[in-house]
Amino acid sequence: MSTEIRVPTLGESVTEATVATWFKKPGDSVAVDEMLCELETDKVTVEVPAPAAGVLADIVANEGETVGVDALLGMISESGNAGPEEPAPRKTEAPAEEPEATDAGGETMPVMVPTLGESVSEATVATWFKKEGDSFEADEMLCELETDKVSVEVPAPAAGTLTKILAKEGETVEAGGQLAEMTSGKGGAAKPAKSEEAPAASAPASSGGKDVEDAPSAKKAMAEAGLSADQVTGTGKDGRIMKDDVAKALSATKSAPSAPAAAPRAPSPADDAAREERVKMTRLRQTIAKRLKDSQNTAAMLTTYNEVDMTEVMALRKQYKDEFEKKHGARLGFMSFFTKACVHALKEVPDVNAEIDGTDVVYKNYVHMGIAAGTPQGLVVPVIRDVDSMSFAEIEKAIAEKGKRARDGKLSMAEMQGGTFTISNGGVYGSLMSSPILNPPQSGILGMHKIQDRPMVVNGEIKIRPMMYLALSYDHRIVDGKGAVTFLVRVKEALEDPRRLLMDL
């Protein structure tokens, strides 16, 4: 009896992923829920557990291949790996004696653009791994394409020789378009001779001279950082370079002592040009830039500001934080106060918690709060669902758990979608004032900033108070100025007198 291993749900709007690493090989025994392989999307890493116990009989999608949701990755069987052993010898036997082999005829075949995913109609040719005249085996990677969301590696449809490249690096190709022409039947015979020469030629392209393909996300990260593969130590299977390896190498490079300065001399434009590096933006980075600008162009975004005296919240936290942590097992931070204050204000100004859908306004009778969190890979916004029905302790536990999963890169796509309002705390990085950008289709985002002691006039006297600037960016198409100001004033009032939260005032 065989059990299929299929691609799990990757999250809303994510239709495909790249097979990054197989932890098992055909013939290995596996237990139920044991990790079989790891997939990479443009945002998160997804681990695929074994759906049943048995033996990994076959791997259908190899490392580096792009797969869609519910696509077949492999098979698990209780009868061992007899299935995948049959095709392996046929690759090494003489092609002329295999009448059923299609790669022995020497016919011209097209290399086509694979399915790019729903709503993705074009891609850019990023890298050709083979040049005209090179031979290869079936499923060996020929080139890599970049789309708006993910990198797509194009495998060889059969063993053969690359005869003509039709779409060169940097060119844009349509879904279903032709990339190159190949002649089948020559790659299988030429491969053994080529494999003896390959190590010397491929050594600079991979860490330690290993003939492995690095993760697509790692290649893009190296290109953006200006690092070569020999500057990064791969921790993946067979020395494969992963995205985290690039981050570590970049961090080590920044922390290394600078070289002694050269002797002063007259600068020249040529010297500056020699020290510059021009790297083409990846399609993913271009899409991020485009969508951020689209957010400004689509929404009538406006920001209103206020300031809050944090004296009462800080005193309340100082008084109860030890008892709170002892009882609930979670630290009492400021985020639960701000979350509660925002929920309180959203009830009074529901427009800030609504969104525009065509010519309709969709009012949300619930609050799914997005909490922006910084990670080594960048800013992510995990969503705490139904936060309006949660206690202070439940909010603090959820924020701590989501924050840890974000830093570990374990958030799923589902955990970062569906938010109705967002809080961004730039104060942890020292920001005194900023204007946050909306996260469409949300209509509001609250920016928190640094708590700083400032002289304030209190009852006619100058007092030193811990003050924080607040910024609310909102979509003026749906939220009027009065509603935005009212929202921010209600947040300010709730924080300056937390008892109002208990009294629902």
TrEMBL record:
PROSITE patterns: BIOTINYL_LIPOYL, PSBD. InterPro entries: 2-oxoacid_dehydrogenase (IPR050537), 2-oxoacid_DH_actylTfrase (IPR001078), Biotin_lipoyl (IPR000089), CAT-like_dom_sf (IPR023213), E3-bd_dom_sf (IPR036625), PSBD (IPR004167), Single_hybrid_motif (IPR011053), SucB (IPR006255). Residues 2-77, 108-183 form the Lipoyl-binding domain. The keyword Transferase applies. This is Dihydrolipoyllysine-residue succinyltransferase component of 2-oxoglutarate dehydrogenase complex. One of its GO terms (molecular function) is dihydrolipoyllysine-residue succinyltransferase activity. Residues 213-250 form the Peripheral subunit-binding (PSBD) domain. Residues 237-247 have a biased composition (Basic and acidic residues). Pfam families: 2-oxoacid_dh, Biotin_lipoyl, E3_binding. It comes from Pseudooceanicola marinus. One of its GO terms (cellular component) is cytosol. Its EC number is 2.3.1.61. Belongs to the 2-oxoacid dehydrogenase family. Keywords: Acyltransferase, Lipoyl, Transferase, Tricarboxylic acid cycle. Residues 198-209, 248-271 have a biased composition (Low complexity).
